[in-house]
Amino acid sequence: MKAVAVSKFGALPEVMELPKPVPRDGMLLIRVAAAGINPFDWKLIDGILDGKMPHQFPLIMGVDGAGVVEAVGGGVTRFKAGDHIYGQFLHAPVGEGAFAEYAIVPEKAAIALAPEKISLVEAAAVPTAGMTALQLLETLELKAGQTLLIIGATGGVGSFTSQLAKQQGIHVIATVSDEAAAYRMLKLGATETINYKEAAIAAQISTLYPHGVNGLIDLVSDAAAFNAMTGLVKSGGAALTTLFNANSQQLTQKNIRGGNFETKGSTASLDKLTTIINTGKLRIPVENKISLIEVPAAIAASRTGKGKGKTVIVL
C-alpha cells in the first residue's frame, strides 16, 4: 500500500510502498477514505513523543482519519466490518498513522461512528481541530454575550471555535490578514474581525474594548506575545494558549484563569461533535483537498502556521 512516512526523526516525509497492516487483537483495520493534516503531525516526526511512547520506522504519519472498517481483530466489540468511523488514529507504537491507504487503530482509541450528514472526506477534517475547539470553549466557561478574542483564527481550530462559540451566544473577535479571510470568518460565526496587518492587535482591541475582553484563545503567539495579549483580558477573565508558553505567575498577577491548553482526545468529545454536525449546525472548513503525493509540500506549508481552514488528504 502507499503511505506517507519518514525513515527517522527529522527526515522529510515521502510517499513509500509499505505492507498492508494486519489488525492485532483489539484493533480495527481501516480502509482510509481521507486524513486531516494538523500541526501535531509534523511535531510527531520532529520527536515530540520520543521517550514518551514507543515508535516504529518507517513511521507512517497522520493522527486524524476517517474510513471504513474492513476487518476487526480478536475481542473487538464496539465496531464491525462496514462501519464508517472517524477520529484520532494515534496509538502505540507511533508510526501506524492515517496517511496511508490502510491503517490499524485500537477500538479503545478516540474514534467513533462518523457523522451521517457529511462525507468521510469532511469527517477527516474534524477530530483534532474540532475536539480542540470544543474543549477550549468548555475550559473558558464564557457566557452568552461575553467577548472572545481568537488570535490565529483562520486555521482549522479557529474556524471550528468561531462556529461553536456563536452557537453559545458568544461575541467572537477573529484576527485576519486580509478582506477574504475577514469575509470567511464572518460567515463562520465571528461577530467582527481585526486585520493585524493594518494595525497592532493590542491597539485595535484597546480602542474597541477599553475595558478588555472576557476571554482569549491564542493559537499562534510566542510567550512574550501571549503575555502581551493577556493584557487585553479583563480581571477575572480567562486566556488559553495551545503552544504551551503561558506563565502561570503572570496570569495570577492579572487575575486571569487559564494558561496552557492540551486537547484530550476522547470518544465523548467526538460524540458531541457528531451530534452538532448531524443537526447541520457545524460547517466543516475543508479548504484544500490533496493526494498523498502532495502531502510533503502540505506539511512544509503547515510548519509556517499560516493555514486557512483544513487540508484533507483524499485517498
UniProtKB/TrEMBL annotation:
Keywords: NADP, Oxidoreductase. One of its GO terms (molecular function) is oxidoreductase activity. This is NADP-dependent oxidoreductase. It is an enzyme of class 1 (oxidoreductase). The lineage of its organism: Bacteria, Pseudomonadati, Bacteroidota, Chitinophagia, Chitinophagales. Residues 11-313 form the Enoyl reductase (ER) domain. Its EC number is 1.-.-.-. Pfam families: ADH_N, ADH_zinc_N. The keyword Oxidoreductase applies.
